[in-house]
Amino acid sequence: MNLLGRVSVFPSLPAPLNRLERLAHNLMWAWAPDTQALFRDIAPEIWDRVQRNPVKLLCEVPQSRLDELAVDPVFLARYQAVLTAFDAYMDAQDTWFRKSHPDHDGRPVAYFSAEFGLHESLPIYSGGLGILAGDHCKSASDIGLPFVGVGLLYNQGYFRQQLSTEGRQEAMYDKLNFNELPIEPALGPDGEPVFIHVSLPGRRVWAKVWQVRVGRVSLYLLDTDIDRNSQDDRRFSAQLYGGDHDMRIAQEIILGIGGVRALRALGIEPAIWHMNEGHSAFLGLERIRELVQGHELSFYHAIEAVAASSVFTTHTPVPAGNDAFSFEMMERYFRGMWSELRCSREEFLELARQDRIGGPALFSMTVLALRLSRRANGVSKLHGEVSRDLWKNLWPGVPVHEVPITSITNGIHPDTWLAPELARLFDERSPSWREDLMAARPMEGVPAVPAEAYWQVRRELKVKMIAHVRDRVRKMRLRHGEGAARVAEVDSLLDPDTLTIGFARRFATYKRATMLFRDLERLKAIVLNSERPVQVIFAGKSHPADEPGKKFIQAIHEFTRVEGLSHRIVLVEDYDMHLARDLVRGVDVWLNNPRRPLEASGTSGQKAALNGVLNFSVLDGWWCEGYNGKNGWSIGEEREFRSHDDQDDADSMSLYHTLESEILPMYYDRDASGLSARWVAASLEAIRSCGTLFSTHRMVQDYTNFLYVPAHEHGKKLTADGFSLARLLADWKGMLRLNWHHISIEARGPREQRATVGDTIPLEARLRLGGLDPRHFVVEICQGREFQGALNDIEVVTMGDPERIGEGVWAYSGGLTPRTGGSYSYAVRVRPHHPELLDRHEVGLIRWA
Predict the structure, then answer these.
(1) Largest CA distance in the chain
(2) Between the CA of residue 504 and those of 538, 542, 570, 593, what are the distances in Å?
């Protein structure tokens, strides 16, 4: 049989239910429990089968059932209540953003990401990066931020994971039926569907633009699987993170350059362009091209204008994790672009040049994003430090702590991840908790929740999670053709009264998924203890090309079959958002043991903490900021090791010791009613201390206050009056770079001297500028504690106004004033200065005396 196509046939909605389709096509239902319950009760037997997707539900529900509900007064009352709440949300005028920034002109933030995790029924995400992007969209909607997302619509999504009988990961791909998803064709100002094109070697590739409504904001997704394209080009939007370098560069051209063109075709004029990781950095090139071609700006003038209104978030703490392409590949894909940008080949490649020891230079997407953004950030305080050190070579001579990469710690969307059962309990017992969330202040009322009621809800969540895990394991064993006895064993798998540890995440090797098994005999003694038993649930995917990661999955599968552990260690296949929600709500302890400092943030632990699950984690990523000694436990020490083996030995010993001496005694310290008062206190403390501070409400407010709004204001200044300030700054920077080799500085001060606190030790400097104006420079004293040849805790003091003492020679004076006792060191430097620079090291030039 030769199948020619597929048609999705929907029943006709009765008039009283005619807005069900609008509700289904706005993903606000993904974080609205009452709306989900309404759809579920239309046809409970269909709801789970269609992955809780209301659009597909409405396709498959019988017409007779809809007709029945249209005259059911109880259902209609619930329906009207949901509509009332939906309309109130969509029409709200008193949002955080309107109250906090009433003078904003309404132009949106355009947020580009290679993946978006909004709901399991739209599987265009692979892990933390995508879930973060989805949560970012949801909180942008909640706080009323003008905002649009831009991504790719992968028609096969990310793979479904199946495990073989030997535990090998198998990647399964299913083509999505867009007619049965909460997406719609995006319409331009003329009311017609929007198509855009990009240039790839020797041809044009077209993309259709789709719209996903996410509460008050929209996400626009590009799809190349259309008739205008060749079969090869249609696959560019097939799979997330699939294919070779040619596939990756083509996808990133479509995302970055095509994404800009899609917004233009839709009539959307963003104020801010936010790149979530470097995948979309080509958008900066397209914006430069627009200004060069449309406004007669030079290449460098356009860079200034573009960078002023761009924000870049880096997530990857290792160089190998950042996309980079060979110069040969860049020439093949961008050969015609230098002329459009009015720059040379060398200037183009230099824009993103990343030198490598022992290999040719590469065109780095992260370097490109950093060069074309005046605001960049890591995703936790520690990750900000790691990122500044990782990319310090882009600002040669600048002390690492002054490298202009800040940090905004990631968060999670509360209504998506908090169990509705806990939300109802908090509504009853701590009504201010929702206001605390929006205000990003600790939920001080939560510890007053009655321990008995809270413990009961936590146990209900555990029972629900165990039922979900059993269902998945049962299906896997049936697929494997296992016997009736093995299948029947699933009904007794996991015990709700046993301490349950969860480990679920991407199986990258640095996350050390097998750490728990480093001393197998000691682990057996712990988990098989008859009085204080332990059970552990593992879940997670490895990238299809990551063989070491897949070996970790297989190793854990083998551990689940070790005698004595088979009923205490469980590996669940096909980790997705549905399983994630139940795990972060249902386990008792969330285990995270990455190799420090490679965990940029680690948002799964934040989801667990919001639900009262206690984190047991290496002090890496967000846990460095979240851990307070009362809301969970730490693993290992915050120090360097000679080797990975030494680090693994130390961390595993810490893990076992803490589990034996602290975690298990606390969990099993029960009163007559079976309640552990100490555990409940720690669990509620986790919610109080972490629930609000690590939410995306706080995170998006931070982005708005510290990055978006300042970048918007600066962008407007640089584009005003025919881009006059952008031209001025570009020309000024060019002048400095051209003449920088002429500049020299000398300083005079004591090599060693004894002083008393409060004394001022005079220093002098002489700056040789040739014919340059000293107003373009500042001379600074840097004082601090010396450690291993570098200054720590640096205080920067500007030296006084210069005095001309010769042709092109200027004298400066100042002083070193220690405020506490101890040994101080100092240095003197000169750097460029302009009142319109966003950061003092924006130019990237510095010279030390």
Answers:
(1) 96
(2) 6, 11, 11, 11
pLDDT digits (tens, 9 = 90+) for 79-128: 999 999 999 999 999 999 999 999 999 999 999 999 999 999 999 999 89
- Which ranges constitute the DSSP H helices of 659-748? 664-667, 677-690, 696-702, 709-739
Q: Can you tell me which residue has the tokens 């799809």?
A: 223
* Integer Cα distance of 373 and 800 in angstroms: 32
In three-state secondary structure terms, 771 is coil
pLDDT-wise least confident of 28-37, 91-100, 428-437, 578-587: 428-437
The residue with tokens 């006084």 is: 800
Whether residue 185 has a cis bond before it, omega within 30° of 0: no
Domains of the chain, by residue range, sit at 15-91, 96-410+703-720, 446-693, 743-848
Alpha carbon distance 778, 56 (integer Å): 64
CB environment 151-190: b (16+ within 10 A), e (fewer): bbbbbbbbbbbebeeebebebebeebebebbbbeebeeee
Question: Over pLDDT 70: what percentage of the chain?
Answer: 100
**Residue 794 φ then ψ, to 5°:** -70, 135
Is the pLDDT at 790 greater than 90? The verdict is no
One fold for 446-693 and 743-848: no
At 683 the pLDDT is: 97
Q: What are 144's two structure tokens?
A: 């009323």
Q: What is the pLDDT of residue 788?
A: 67
Count the neighbouring beta carbons within 10 Å of the beta carbon of residue 277: 25
Instruction: Collect all residues with Cβ–Cβ distance below 8 Å to 409 and sequence separation of at least 6.
Output: 379, 380, 381, 601, 622, 625, 694, 699
**Residue 751, amino acid:** R
Taking the C-alpha atoms of residue 13 and residue 165, their distance in angstroms, rounded to an integer, is 45
Residue 819 CB neighbour total at 10 angstroms: 9
Phi, psi for residue 61 in degrees, rounded to 5: -70, 135
**pLDDT tens digit string along 6-57?**
788 889 999 999 999 999 999 999 999 999 999 999 999 999 999 999 999 9
Cβ proximity of 30 and 118 under 8 Å: yes
Alpha-carbon distances, residue 712 vs 107, 117, 706, 715 (angstroms) = 9, 27, 11, 5
Higher pLDDT, 290 or 787: 290
Gyration radius (Cα) of the chain, Å: 29
pLDDT band at 173 (very low <50, low <70, confident <90, very high): very high
CATH fold of 743-848? Immunoglobulin-like (2.60.40)
Q: 96-410+703-720: which CATH topology?
A: Rossmann fold (3.40.50)
Report the alpha-carbon distance of residue 513 to residue 516 in Å, rounded.
7
Q: At what angle do helices 709-739 and 282-295 cross, to 10 degrees?
A: 80
Written in H, E and C, the secondary structure of 779-843 is EEEEEEEEECCEEEEEEEEECCCCEEEECCEEEEEEEECCCCCCCCEEEEEEEECCCCCCCCCCC
The backbone torsions φ and ψ at residue 815, rounded to the nearest 5 degrees and listed phi first, read -155, 155
Its CATH architecture, for the domain 446-693, is 3-Layer(aba) Sandwich (3.40)
Q: What is the pLDDT of residue 754?
A: 83
Q: What is the pLDDT of residues 494-518, one digit of tens each?
A: 999 999 999 999 999 999 999 999 9
**Statement: the pTM of the whole predicted model exceeds 0.70:** yes
Of 479, 842, 442, nearest to 628 by C-alpha is: 442
Choose among 150, 149, 148, 151: nearest CA to 106: 148
Give the SS3 label for residue 50: coil
Number of H helices, E strands in the chain: 33, 29
- Could you count the other beta carbons within 10 Å of the beta carbon of residue 530? 5
Cβ-defined contacts of 193-198 (< 8 Å, 24+): 194/262, 194/265, 194/266, 195/226, 195/228, 195/265, 196/222, 196/258, 196/261, 196/262, 196/265, 197/258, 197/261, 198/253, 198/254, 198/257, 198/258, 198/261
